[in-house]
Amino acid sequence: MKTGDSIDIGNGKKLVFVEMRMLHWPDSMATYLTGDNILFSNDAFGQHFAVEELFNDKADQCMLWEEAIKYYANILTPFSPLVKKKIEEIQGLNLPIDIIATSHGSIWRENPLQIVEKYYEWSQNYKEDQITVVYDTMWDGTKQLAHKISAEIARISPNTRVKIYNISKTNKNDIMTKVFKSKAIALGSPTVYGSILSSVGGWLEFLKELKYKDKKAAVFGCYGWGGEGTKVLRERLTDAGFMVVDAEAKSLWNPEEADFQNAEEIARALCQ
Ligand SMILES: Cc1cc2nc3c(=O)[nH]c(=O)nc-3n(C[C@H](O)[C@H](O)[C@H](O)COP(=O)(O)O)c2cc1C
After folding, report:
1. In-domain check, residue 168
2. Which residue is closest in CA terms to ligand 1's atom 2?
3. How is 118-187 classified by DSSP, letter by letter?
4. Which of 102, 151, 184, 270 could form a disulfide linkage to 46, CB 3.0–4.6 angstroms apart?
5. pLDDT digits (tens, 9 = 90+) for 1-45
6. Could you tell me the distance, in angstroms and rounded to a whole number, from the CA of residue 163 to the centre of ligand 1?
7. Ligand 1: does its nearest atom lie under 6 Å from the Cβ of 232?
């Protein structure tokens, strides 16, 4: 089967097939039912979310949209170029769509194309005026820097939404959704055995897999002697495709005045 192939199912209705290779599995396909104008979209446009009344217009809108973007941010971003191409291809088929029934999540029956439009937007290096600060710490020194950076962003750019998370205390998918929406992030870890905390290292591995594009980043963290942590963060964020700014806050033991000034420099560089 390839895109546009169809089979007759009686009553004058047909199933039309649309190839969706790697969205997000190699064998993914969508199926369109003529007459009823239903697009069975497989994983696309879905959520990891159950709506008791089944339909998008019955769902709590805040939860539905948060779950929809969370699904996109955590599952589909590596395939964003394919998403954009596929949407253009489906639009090119000129099929009237009254319902989008995904394989998991709510069924889109009220203005079903709204989720298609959102996917199109999300597939193109999406970002809002938001900055997310992410860190872990052993004795709260790195946390102090994180909070100073957040406070400075809020002071320098009051319209920018600032989010702050301790990696060990928040669901990693929720943090990733905030990063997806952000134009920049600041990432902090104390130095541990010449590197970074494994919680931050694991999260960075996930971040790299998601292939976010066109976002700035800054690094910070406390240390006791060698202080290799910020260098490791810098290298790994660059490897994950982030544009890492020069400003950084690297504090010997707990932060002092000069370190807080560096935190201010980070905020300034990320807001530019
Ligand atoms: C197990 C362990 C290993 C550490 N390894 C290093 C190291 O290799 N290099 C270094 O500069 N500091 C090292 N430190 C010191 C911490 O980076 C330092 O105490 C820092 O201030 C902790 O920051 P926090 O308050 O954010 O947890 C280590 C600390 C611990 C507990």
Report:
1. yes
2. 192
3. HHHHHTTT---SEEEEEE--SSSHHHHHHHHHHHHHHHH-TTSEEEEEEGGGS-HHHHHHHHHH-SEEEE
4. 102
5. 788 899 999 999 999 999 988 888 899 999 999 999 999 999 999
6. 25
7. no
